[in-house]
Amino acid sequence: MRKPYVYITRQIPEKLLKPYQNIAEIKTWTYEDQPVDAETLKEEIAHADGMITMLSDKIDEELLEQAKNLKVIANLAVGYDNFELSSIRKRGIVATNTPDVLTNATADLTFALLLATGRRLIEADRFVREGKWKQWSPFLLAGTEMNQKNIGIVGMGRIGEAVARRAKGFGMNILYHNRTRKEQAERELAAMYCSFEELLKESDFVVCLTPLTKETNGLFNEEAFSQMKQSSIFINVSRGAVVDEQALYHALVSGSIRGAGLDVFQHEPVEPNHPLLNLNQVVCLPHIGSASEETREEMIILCLENVTNVLQGREAITPIPY
């Protein structure tokens, strides 16, 4: 009896794969510095029993038509907007993701981005490296303090609540908007629920952590940015498509808002000539929200556990809910 075949669309450290190699034949994509190409993905899905994929791997009807043996597909992410779920489910394939394990790493990154943007840290680093630091002056690269400022969190899920706890430690006032009220967060963190429009008007820092859905696609548009304070800073660690990037660029160059910190973009990897990359008041990161060594290892292990569980006839640990 043959071992199930599992294909992973990126390179994975051998030490993480070793405990599972007696359960399945595991093959990984060859190149570390580039994503799997469409032809290879098409070839591999044709005979894979299980797959581990990334957000950049589009799993749609056309690709799934090639899948003859596929029983489970695990996304190395909490999001799964790269999955065409209707096509996956009609074939009886189990789809999984990695919630919970990346909450703290992503919250840390979100707050680091907020601090870096608010206090102009990247701009200051370049200032020193480029030999522009000639003297001290009272308002040289002066930024924005966090204490007693309003942070508005759009999307109060696990990560949103973790960001709120960090903000509380900095003495910030917490506003939030979510599809449902989070009464526990209101009690424990003195978080205040408000409408989206009210949050935009009252917040000094607007932090986007909402999932990408039909309702949130393009949520931060010209109208949204026009309602924010001129002194406000926008942070996005959600999905690039939640933001109209042209509207964001216009808001920044016109002075409608003060700055932005972005871990995600509409099209990734972002092109080096992207207009937002030319603005000093914007901090740009390459989608590294969960990129701590500890968290990435936990995410990989969870994917492997999900895949091997299903291939051995057990329930997945973190199936994507219907």
From TrEMBL:
GO terms for molecular function: glyoxylate reductase (NADPH) activity; hydroxypyruvate reductase [NAD(P)H] activity; NAD binding. Belongs to the D-isomer specific 2-hydroxyacid dehydrogenase family. It comes from the Bacteria. It comes from Radiobacillus deserti. PANTHER family: 2-HYDROXYACID DEHYDROGENASE-RELATED, GLYOXYLATE_HYDROXYPYRUVATE REDUCTASE B. InterPro entries: D-isomer_2-hydroxyacid_DH, D-isomer_2_OHA_DH_cat_dom, D-isomer_DH_CS, D-isomer_DH_CS1, D-isomer_DH_NAD-bd, NAD(P)-bd_dom_sf. Residues 6-318 form the D-isomer specific 2-hydroxyacid dehydrogenase catalytic domain. GO terms for cellular component: cytosol. Residues 111-289 form the D-isomer specific 2-hydroxyacid dehydrogenase NAD-binding domain. Keywords: Oxidoreductase. This is D-glycerate dehydrogenase.
